[in-house]
């Protein structure tokens, strides 16, 4: 049991939270879009713009909160573009999604190059919000309950999404927009409007996820820093099949795997980073092979809705 | 007959307009971006064209770059036309590259070059095809969405390639982890008296062959039917699961061939953490050409000029190579819009 020292467990839990929150936010966002029938391959791009916008504002104003607002706005701006092109005009969602990701990668790298390439400024660690009592649990308390407020917000969002999907009119409309848009239209609800709301919220979540990566997780902006996290978010959403709690579980699982490297180094075990990095993906493939059920994605996923079209 | 000729030439003119119009708009938008960055767009484009197209060494580098890109394009055309979203090209590419890079120097010591190179190309293709087997089977027999599985396998493949380089095939003579370097004399032959790798020929042959198979043969028709309407294909008695596995195999083998060609023709070895991520950049090009092989060749050429020219412009004018990503992104959006406007115009004509 020499491996499971306090330092190891603490750094594992902390790492899982830091790596898991962007995945949770991104996954919840993607889930919302997919529910409404929009496959959002541009998630990575929305996260990256959120990361850059968040970093710039947090750097300029010195306030992490305004950074998060800017990140959310940045993600929503990309999402607005996606909503116009894919939901209003009905262009191919996969093509536009890839275009948005490539464009966001290029633009943020260029902007970073113009402004920060020589200085590489670093942000101060954001203020944390300690939850009374809980944060004093030995070993894992500080890692779980003495975090920036955004972490609690992300977890709270899981509950909010469950409530929205189960108990609200909007949740039913979202579900119908993905399952049978024509029926929703016949019921007098605006399909395009419903999907637009979904895509914009996805942008908001993804922007927050990106801002979390630059403001909280690393404190710097580096080109291409989202590093496939958006794509993992897409996978989480697809595996979770519409259940927000499963996104939370998946994000934690991936987070633990991603943070295992640092934690093992703390414990003095030298395992190649690349082997550890394979763990979460290998886990997903294993789950798919073993569980092997037919993925129940919304029937209208990926196709645009046009009234009266056959 | 005269009428037929006019409509045909009109169709060609329309196709050309549709291909070139978005390119012009994208370059224009790129020019505005350059202006915003304080760079003279004319100087930049001039420099890119000069370095990527007009100088002999630049043109040769551009043509060499085209080889692997064309093979990736061929890989994507097969998959996309058959309705399969193989987004795992990067993992397939890298694993094939690493296997070819590991095998070639080892074999070159014992066998003649004309035997080693084809063997390594086949090895790369086979490794990549094998890497796609799991997503293929899951899609064919469990109906699991291949976008998830191929992306997962690509992340896995990139890490596995690094593990192989660092732990298994590492060249003990170098400090940086990389595979043993294939001597220049043992690489893929160059074309005539130029520095252009014969990978270009392999790429061109692959794209044209894929185009012809998909559009002119019964096999291609079967695959396109599966892509257009899997339900109908099943109803028509086509062995859909079998065809799905075959498409994955061909698509991945071509992506693997791209990796092997890049290593055996240009790179000579694979360094740890090397990942050119060609696959995701070629996806838009294939879409721009609407899965047409010849159109793809044109767009791949254009992109190669931009990226080779852009790489030297990055050093000279201080505009990073990321700029070409932005151009491709704008190009995609503009093309999508052009297509939308055209459809709306046609529908108005029908009413």
Automatic annotation (TrEMBL), chain A:
Residues spanning the membrane: 6-25, 37-59, 65-87, 94-114, 149-165, 197-215, 221-240, 247-269, 275-292
Keywords: Cell membrane, Membrane, Sugar transport, Transmembrane, Transmembrane helix, Transport
Main location: membrane
Compartments, as annotated in UniProt: Cell membrane
Pfam families hit by this protein: BPD_transp_2
Entry-linked CDD domains: TM_PBP1_transp_TpRbsC_like
Membrane topology: Multi-pass membrane protein
InterPro entries: ABC_transp_permease
Highest taxon listed in the record's lineage: Bacteria
This protein's record includes keyword Aminoacyl-tRNA synthetase: no
Protein name: Simple sugar transport system permease protein
Annotated source species: Pseudochelatococcus lubricantis
From TrEMBL, chain B:
InterPro entries: ABC_transp_permease
Coiled coil ranges: none
Topology relative to the membrane: Multi-pass membrane protein
Transmembrane regions: 12-39, 59-80, 115-138, 150-169, 196-219, 240-261, 281-305, 317-338
CDD domains, per the entry: TM_PBP1_transp_TpRbsC_like
Subcellular location: Cell membrane
Pfam families named in the record: BPD_transp_2
Domain of life: Bacteria
Keywords assigned: Cell membrane, Membrane, Sugar transport, Transmembrane, Transmembrane helix, Transport
Keyword Cell membrane recorded: yes
Family matches, as PANTHER family: ABC TRANSPORTER, PERMEASE PROTEIN, GUANOSINE ABC TRANSPORTER PERMEASE PROTEIN NUPP
Protein name: Simple sugar transport system permease protein
Species annotation: Pseudochelatococcus lubricantis
Organism lineage: Bacteria, Pseudomonadati, Pseudomonadota, Alphaproteobacteria, Hyphomicrobiales
């Amino acid at each position: 049991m020499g491996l499971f020292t306090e330092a190891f467990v603490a750094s594992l839990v902390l790492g899982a939270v830091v790596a898991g929150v962007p995945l949770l936010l991104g996954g919840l966002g993607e889930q919302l879009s997919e529910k409404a029938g929009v496959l959002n391959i541009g998630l990575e791009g929305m996260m990256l713009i959120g990361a850059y916008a968040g970093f710039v504002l947090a750097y300029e104003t010195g306030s992490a909160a305004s950074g998060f607002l800017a990140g959310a706005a940045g993600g929503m701006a990309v999402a607005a573009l996606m909503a116009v092109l894919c939901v209003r005009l009905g262009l191919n969602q996969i093509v536009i999604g890839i275009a948005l990701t490539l464009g966001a990668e290029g633009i943020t790298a260029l902007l970073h190059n113009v402004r920060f390439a020589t200085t590489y400024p670093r942000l101060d660690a954001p203020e944390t919000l300690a939850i009374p009592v809980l944060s004093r649990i030995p070993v894992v308390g500080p890692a779980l309950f003495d975090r920036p407020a955004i972490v609690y917000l992300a977890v709270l969002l899981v509950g909010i999404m469950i409530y929205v999907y189960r108990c609200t009119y909007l949740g039913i409309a979202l579900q119908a927009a993905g399952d049978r848009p024509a029926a929703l239209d016949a019921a007098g609800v605006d399909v395009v409007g419903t999907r637009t709301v979904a895509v914009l919220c996805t942008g908001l979540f993804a922007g927050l996820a990106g801002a979390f990566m630059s403001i909280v997780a690393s404190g710097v902006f580096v080109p291409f820093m989202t590093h496939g996290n958006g794509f993992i978010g897409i996978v989480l959403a697809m595996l979770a099949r519409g259940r927000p709690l499963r996104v939370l579980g998946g994000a934690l699982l991936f987070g633990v795997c991603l943070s295992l490297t640092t934690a093992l180094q703390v414990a003095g075990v030298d395992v190649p980073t690349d082997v550890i990095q394979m763990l979460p993906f290998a886990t997903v493939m294993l789950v798919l092979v073993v569980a092997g059920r037919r993925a129940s994605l919304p029937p209208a996923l990926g196709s645009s809705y046009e009234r009266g079209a056959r | 007959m005269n009428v037929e000729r006019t409509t045909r030439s009109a169709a060609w003119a329309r196709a050309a307009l549709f291909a070139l119009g978005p390119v012009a708009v994208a370059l224009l938008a790129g020019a505005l971006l350059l202006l915003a960055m304080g760079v003279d767009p004319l100087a930049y484009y001039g420099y890119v064209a000069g370095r990527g197209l007009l100088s002999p060494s630049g043109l040769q580098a551009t043509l060499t770059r085209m080889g692997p890109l064309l093979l990736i394009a061929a890989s994507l055309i097969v998959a996309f036309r058959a309705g399969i979203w193989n987004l795992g090209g990067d993992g397939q590419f890298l694993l094939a590259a690493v296997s070819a890079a590991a095998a070639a120097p080892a074999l070159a010591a014992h066998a003649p070059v004309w035997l080693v190179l084809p063997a390594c190309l086949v090895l790369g293709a086979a490794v990549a095809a094998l890497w796609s087997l799991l997503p293929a089977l899951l899609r064919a027999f469990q109906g699991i969405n291949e976008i998830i599985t191929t992306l997962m396998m690509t992340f896995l493949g990139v890490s596995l390639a690094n593990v192989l380089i660092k732990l298994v095939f590492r060249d003990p003579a170098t400090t940086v982890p990389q595979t043993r370097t294939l001597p220049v004399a043992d690489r893929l032959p160059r074309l005539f008296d130029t520095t252009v790798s014969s990978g270009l020929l392999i790429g061109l042959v692959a794209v044209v062959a894929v185009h012809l198979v998909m559009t002119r043969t019964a096999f291609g028709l079967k695959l396109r039917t599966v892509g257009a309407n899997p339900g109908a294909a099943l109803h028509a008695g086509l062995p859909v699961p079998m065809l799905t596995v075959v498409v994955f195999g061909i698509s991945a083998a071509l992506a693997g061939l791209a990796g092997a060609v890049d290593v055996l023709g240009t790179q000579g070895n694979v360094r740890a953490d090397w990942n050119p991520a060609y696959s995701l950049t070629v996806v838009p090009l294939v879409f721009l050409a609407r899965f047409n092989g010849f159109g793809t060749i044109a767009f791949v050429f254009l992109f190669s000029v931009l990226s080779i020219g852009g790489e030297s412009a990055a050093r000279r004018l201080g505009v990073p190579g990321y700029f070409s990503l932005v151009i491709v992104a704008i190009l995609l959006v503009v093309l999508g819009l052009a297509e939308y406007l055209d459809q709306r115009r046609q529908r108005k004509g029908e009413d």
